[in-house]
């Protein structure tokens, strides 16, 4: 029986968390899922170069997808906290660290862990 590679397990977990957030916000179309796959492929190389960064994968994949969506479609995920002013996206905090969360930078409010948007 083959043991599950911890790196692959972490990459699959990061993919699943970001996909859950995309589904929760109803933007998980095929072309968007392809952006997730691209981010996971890029981060596979990154974490092979720096194995200590494995616990940062979920936040980094979320940021990569967020950046790719901004270039192609617009801000994501939109902040559900702020009612006034221009719509704005949530930020991933910490930018490079374990246990990433979606945060409203304007209000300073933690909205949900990555993978926990509703």
Keyword list:
single chain, 118 residues, mainly alpha, 3-stranded antiparallel beta sheet, 3 helices, 3 strands, 47% helix
Overview of the structural elements:
This protein is mainly α and 118 residues long. Helix 1 (6-24) packs antiparallel against helix 2. A hairpin with a 4-residue loop joins strand 2 (101-104) and strand 3. Helix content is 47%, strand content 10%. It has a three-stranded antiparallel sheet with strand order 1-2-3, covered by helices on one side.
Explain briefly what this protein structure is.
The protein is mainly alpha-helical and 118 residues long. It has helices at residues 6-24, 30-49, 57-72; strands at residues 91-93, 101-104, 109-113.
Task: Supply Rg.
Answer: 14 Å
The SSE order reads HHHEEE
**Helix amount:** 40-55%
- Kindly name the structural category: mainly alpha
Question: Mind sketching the topology for me?
Answer:
Elements: H1 6-24, H2 30-49, H3 57-72, E1 91-93, E2 101-104, E3 109-113
Antiparallel strand pairs: 1-2, 2-3
